[in-house]
Amino acid sequence: MALTLLLTACTGATGDAESDGASGTENRDAPQGSGPSSGADSGNAPSADAPNRIDPDPARLPKTRAAALDLIGRVIAGPDSFGPGVVARTPYESGPATWPVLGADCVWRQQPPGGQVLATVTRSFEVPAEAGKGPLRLAAVVTVHRTRQDAAREMAESIEESMRCPTQQLREGERIGSLVAGALLGGEANQTNSEDLLSETGEYRSAELGGPHPYAWQQAQILQATVAVTGKGAKGRTAREVDALITEAQAAMLVRLEDAVEKQS
């Protein structure tokens, strides 16, 4: 059954940045988790109550940080994944050893990733400013967990964060609010691209870019991996424009992820 949450928040001023947390987030910003490899293939096997979208090859499912990073490199979006006009920002790719965590005060902070994460990488992009339009900021994140259950837990926590914090501070001078969030399992409402899909829309306010501007985020899960894309608008940018860009990149990453882990004929 689809879960749809309508969350109306107070608006807040401020913002700029690349590090946004998990829901309302743009990134599981940073990166590679450490820890011993998991030998538990059973953790990646589809459970009885979850849709089995693909037939994975156990040998192609990452069990080490190195294997997870290799998978991420083959899946994560580049500028072309969004379509024409999108360029890389600087810094382009997140560094290791940090993970965004939403505090009780609804402020995102960077902390070391938990042991359930094999690796996570974020890339930052933008559609540059042009006549009458400000820069449209984008980010793509791929996270590989040790097990499918760990990935499902991340998805559940992300939707809970939207409920708990309908207004969130992404970083100093940057906020999102008036959030509307929803979730669809695979097979619900023609959602066939992933096992689970989360989406969030709202208002983005930035000390640099003003606001409110359109904000959108999507995160999807396949097996032990999650992929997410965020778009933050600016003057002259429409919600439809933001949504089209993140949907295009999300679809591209899900296709690559499925190709990378399913059995080869």
Please describe what this structure looks like:
The protein is globular and about 50 Å long. Mean pLDDT is 80; it is low at 1-42 and 45-51. The chain has helices at 65-75, 79-82, 148-164, 239-261; strands at 3-6, 87-93, 99-102, 108-111, 117-127, 136-145, 168-171, 174-185, 196-206, 210-222, 225-232. Strands 1, 2, 5, 6, 7, 8, 9, 10 and 11 form a 9-stranded antiparallel beta sheet that branches. A two-stranded antiparallel ribbon has the order 3-4. Strand 7 (168-171) and strand 8 form a beta hairpin. The protein contains 4 helices and 11 strands, in the order E-H-H-E-E-E-E-E-H-E-E-E-E-E-H. It has a single domain, classed as Protein Transport Mog1p, Chain A, CATH 3.40.1000. With 265 residues, the chain is of the alpha+beta class. The protein starts with a strand and ends with a helix.
Task: Give keywords.
265 residues, alpha+beta, Protein Transport Mog1p, Chain A, two-stranded antiparallel sheet, single chain
How would the blueprint of this fold be written?
Layout: E1 3-6, H1 65-75, H2 79-82, E2 87-93, E3 99-102, E4 108-111, E5 117-127, E6 136-145, H3 148-164, E7 168-171, E8 174-185, E9 196-206, E10 210-222, E11 225-232, H4 239-261
